């Protein structure tokens, strides 16, 4: 089962600069575990205590997984997962 994962610039150091990588798994948690086998250190940046980190947004086919089943969200072959770290700061 192939799932495309889009990687933000800040995490590309874990993927040797690749903008997108392929992974597999039946849930988001399994996908992150699979990614960790080839891109050591990436899982720790995404997951804390078995849950998504507070300031990491993950989208499955353009839907925020926090409104689905979070890290337990089911995946299917051909799905697209986008990782977007939250951005804060600046001045108005």
UniProtKB/TrEMBL annotation:
Gene3D superfamilies: 3.10.20.30. CDD domains: Ubl_CysO_like (cd17074). It comes from the Bacteria. Pfam families: ThiS. This is Molybdopterin converting factor, small subunit. It comes from Streptomyces melanosporofaciens.
């Amino acid at each position: 089962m192939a799932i495309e994962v889009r990687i933000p610039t800040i995490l590309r150091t874990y993927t040797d600069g690749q903008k997108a990588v392929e992974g597999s798994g039946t849930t988001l948690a399994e996908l992150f575990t699979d990614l960790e086998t080839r891109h050591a250190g990436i899982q720790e940046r995404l997951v804390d205590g078995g849950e998504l980190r507070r300031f990491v947004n993950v989208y499955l086919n353009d839907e925020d997984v926090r409104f689905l089943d979070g890290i337990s969200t089911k995946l299917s072959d051909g799905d697209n997962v986008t990782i977007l770290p939250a951005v804060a700061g600046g001045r108005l």
